[in-house]
Amino acid sequence: MRRKRIAVIMAGVDREYQHALTQGMARAARTAGADLLIFNCEGQPDGFIRNDRGERAIFKLPELATFDGAVVLLATIPTKICRDQIRAMMDTCPDMPIVTVDMKHGQSIQVGFDDVISVRELTEHLIDVHGARRFAVVTGPIETRVAQDRFEACRNVLLERGLELPENAVYDGRWGRDGGRKAADRFLRDLAELPDVIVCGNDDMAFGVIEGLQAAGLRVPEDVLVTGFDARQEAVGRGLTTIRRPVLEAGELAINTVMDWIANGRPDGDEITMPTELIYGESCGCPMEPERGAACVKMLSEERRLMEKVLRQTTEFTTTLSSVSTQRMAGEQLTGFARSWYAKEMHVCVVPTYMSGETEEFPETYPDEMLLLSGWSDGKEAMQQRFQTSELLPRLNEERDEPVALVFAPLHYMENNIGYLVFDVEHVVSAVLPSLLLLMSSSLMSLYLRSTVQVYMNTLERISVHDPLTGLHNRRGMQQLMPPVFEMAREQKKAFAAICCDMDDLKSINDQFGHQAGDLSISRLGRAIRMLENCGLTCIHISGDEFLVLGVPNVDCTAESLLEQLQESVRLLNDKDPWLCDISVSMGAYVAVPKAGDRLEDFLRHADNGMYVQKHLHHRRIGRKPE
What we know:
The structure is a single chain. By secondary structure, the protein is α/β, with parallel strands linked by helices. The chain has helices at residues 16-32, 53-56, 80-91, 115-128, 145-160, 177-190, 203-215, 233-237, 247-264, 290-321, 327-340, 352-356, 433-465, 475-492, 506-513, 515-529, 559-576, 600-622, and strands at residues 5-11, 35-41, 69-72, 98-101, 109-114, 135-138, 170-171, 197-200, 225-227, 242-244, 271-275, 277-279, 345-350, 369-377, 380-382, 385-388, 405-413, 416-424, 496-503, 538-543, 546-551, 585-592. The strands form 4 sheets. Strands 1, 2, 3, 4, 5, 11, 13, 14, 15, 16, 17 and 18 form a 12-stranded mixed beta sheet that branches. It is elongated. Mean pLDDT is 85; it is low at 45-51.
């Protein structure tokens, strides 16, 4: 029986909050025996790396209706256009079990957090224990429900205690450290008195506020108290007063809710709320718990060491990858990196025409067929192969003892959609993933550009030795190809054939039907002559109505048999594809084994003499001098 398959739609899987959620989801899915496929982009709210056409293609990859259920993290998606795209995708599956985290949509069941109770507890603590009266708040994007809930919980406590919150004491920091620094600057400039405390909607903004205050010569907590939210490892380790959400547990709950929905029908209620925990730290003047801080510092130290190692490996790998010139070499380098990274799973899937340099415009979504450029799974290398994009990955169709938890991340160069990288959740290394994706995409783009240049060079070379009117080789092509073939025939004592052809009455066709018809008649004769390629010969359009056929025949033949085949080909063309008039041709052939001292020109002269005998006979029959 096929395993249940759960899709996860999100952004920023490498960031601490999302990473904890995915670890919880992966743990629960593994326990339930379900495959977890996470479709993730790396869009940043500041727009430096956007969820633009190249990146948001990853959300067009899964056919949601083919999954048994989904978990959607709309709150992690920083752009409205991408959130709207995901909402539209959810609307196509109104009966599917879908759990959302933090931001509900449609028929979904939402897993949320009771931020309000902890923010109220924090605000009351600051007033009652530390005597704070003058508050300033850095909210985060106030249009989001999360930012609104946290801000209103703080303001409501202040109103209940009879404390004011001036309008200029509220700042939207957009969740980033830079926003926190700007908030600190504005508070110091615009507020009549220094605030007792600055309450921030997340830890990053809190750190930005602290940096801004310190730059102004102020101390935390001696001069100003500062608090955050999210309980990131860095925040707890540095003694920031913050609020912890049970994020890992929420990931487990989201998957368990989907699995229960699949098995037993939709559970009652539209929302499941989880409690939060206030963590006291030195930034508000409280002593931090030494054990908790030490554990966070140790974890951060280990994570940094791992990040440095992986980033070094990634940089070395991409430097090597940027020098490869073939699809096979690129696959080998990618597999080698997966091996050195000790990845359990790593697969690189690209648009097939991209590897050949034939793609001129990159698609906004993935084509019907993808190329597995490199595959590495459980210590085994997968062969390069094309597969149907709807399969997502050939690995998923294999017989497996264990379920998988895989991340699908886009490979794109600005607007250009290259493909996607697939890897196991265990190898989501904080802060390294964006660098890995960027470096890998840049290296693959470099390979594409080299392939494109080679395609153009090959095209130019082909054009330079072929005649555009007939598609046959031209005089330059003959001069490149035939001398070595002639010498080979002499050395190996093989017969060499030379046929000279000249269309009859081309001037009459031009005069009667026009020069365009004359060109078409030449093209038609080229089609008839091309039949001799079946004999291993090379057909050449010299100029005007003059043709040559040269080479070593791959069958026993004589000059007479070759001329008969050619005459028959012309006759069949006239009979089966009637035109303005019949085409006739004069021809001569010479077939012999080249001897010492023979030249290619000698064979051409013999064939040319035979052709002119036929040409004179033709014009004698119609009573016209040869042209």
